[in-house]
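agent> Task received from the user: take the single chain below, predict its 3D structure, and emit structure tokens. No templates, no multimer pairing.
agent> Plan: (1) validate residues, (2) run structure prediction, (3) serialize to tokens, (4) report one or two observations.
agent> Step 1 OK, no nonstandard residues flagged.
tool_call: predict_structure(input=
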Amino acid sequence: MAQIGTDEVETKPSRIQLRNRRKILDAALEVFSAHGFRGATLDQIARAAGLSKPNILYYFAGKEEIHVTLLTALMDTWLAPMREIDPDGEPLEELLRYVKRKLEMSRAYPRESRLFANEILQGAPMIGEGLKADLKPLVDRTAQLIERWASEGRLKPVDGRHLIFSIWATTQHYADFDAQVQVLMSGRDVHGDAVSFLDTLYRRMLAV
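)
tool_result: status=success, residues=208
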């Protein structure tokens, strides 16, 4: 039996290496979401991770690689709820479920939402190709599905893309502008109020 040469064996990262990568990515998420890509530095990420700058560079080639790693993982997470919309389901309930999922993600992943928003505000230099390759075809299909449902009389007439934009705006606002929301909604159940309000808003807008 032929033996595999040592240079052909893929070495799995150790537990310490995996832990350090997670620490770096979590620290970078905090720094990038607060300062954006341009305002963030490797020194800031190193301090937040509790590691030295050379240690950071052992795992990643630089700030850009860390940023792209975070954004790539985030894109998959962000698109998952839209991919789960069932073309064979009840249209209104499928869309209301999507609204609720997006709102839940804003509560669970506020830093990720701000990271994505900062990237888009900068002109999407890191994920522009991903937007074209992954996001656009998915939005095209979803918008066409929404408009087909409307043409069948199962929803009120609506522009599918503008509806999607509106859902993004009304759900991700709670993450991207959290500091403002907390001041203006002090002492109230922000998430619970938002779930109820947005359900009513879109139900009235779309129900036939």
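agent> Step 4: summary for the user.
The domain at 68-206 is CATH 1.10.357.10 (Tetracycline Repressor; domain 2).
agent> Done.
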